[in-house]
Amino acid sequence: MHNLSPISDLDPITEVPDRPICEGFTAPSPENKPWSAAPGGGHRVRLQSWAATCCATAPLLFLALMTAGAAAQHTTGTPNRGLPEIAPGSGPVQAIALGAAPAPGKAQAASSSEVNVTADGWQATGIQLAAGDQVVFEAKGTMTLSDARTVTAAGSPRGWRDLLRMYPLSSAGAGALIGRIGKNAAALPFAIGNSDTLTAPVGGELYLRANISPDLTAQGSYHVKVRVEPVKKGETGPSSAMSQDFARKLSPALFANIPRRVHDQQGNPGDMVNFALVGTEQQVKTALANAGWIPTDPNTEDALIHGLLQTLEHQSYHAVPMSTLYLFGRPQDMAYARGRDIQVAASRNHLRLWKSPETVDGKPLWVGSATHDHGFETDQRNGGITHHIDPNIDQERDFIVQSLADSGGARAAAYVLPSNPVTSARTATGGSFTTDGRIAVILLQ
Predict the structure, then answer these.
(1) Spatial CA neighbour of 139 closest among 219, 196, 181
(2) Which domain holds residue 225?
(3) N or C, fewer C-beta in 10 Å, the chain?
(4) Residues 212, 174: contact at Cβ < 8 Å?
């Protein structure tokens, strides 16, 4: 039986300052009450910062969440993203090594392990998986949560108060057994429950934990049996050689007719084009979904409906709309985000995609801009409140590469340095960013 060691750096979270978000709404602080008097009578609603950015929809969507005594949960720190490894070489195109080459010789025999999982956060099991391995889980035992619920590894159904908590995996029940492969910030947790079978999308060490939010503690443990059926010889994941082959098909000329930056409706230059995906529309949607990226709602009307439905089902709402930006004379074709419960609108990874006129080996080239929101700042155009982005946009670019690689959606990847690269600029709203100017190009599975 393995003695599991807790890992403390697997839950990167970001501090959101307490400040007004828009007229009539205020981000929560410890002394805030759910309701306060508004000028001229009536009430002013004080909402979670993630809800407050959707000012037009917040009153109906999140009224049910403002239960007495619920404390707002904010997040701290900057994610350690686990950047991709760059294959040796120089020049305008560099391959990105997404995985190790398969080891020669016979496939390993099946193995079984038994581990105890406590409530001490993410725990390393010492079990090394390869992409394609079949992993069978069986879990027994119970935990008693500090809110008096006793749960098995299947977890407890979410209640109203759970909507105010930040669970590592929002789609799983409270206290459920969950796992992830690897410890970088892009690795996507998955539900296990009392029993499950998983095909490992990527190689790495297996981590397990109970799905418990930071405000809860628990007593007890789960006894987990893990059986690994190794991948058959020749059925391996991405390798450095694949990325090297892919890199040879790319050149700066691929981006000669693609603008370096997107713009807002008034023509103000904004975010940089910093990544591209090669594949069909369905491949793009499948790869992003498998990597935990969620399509955002296009407008507040859709947000109202979807947010209300999610709330009534005791599920967190993550599809908060984002602003419209333009490339090739049209709005983004797709918009996706990855964020955590409660603070998703204030702090999230997000991207926009446009289908370009270019192809690679006959497959469409989708170009995109990606930034990491973490907090708010003043919009230089109108004095309103907008998101503050992490100025190091290369980290977000590489987060996309890592998230697709860790979920098995990337077959190969390479950096391309276009002619006249952008190295620093300001967004349409006035935020600054810096970059090495390279575009990450990802060949999808």
Answers:
(1) 196
(2) 105-229
(3) N
(4) yes
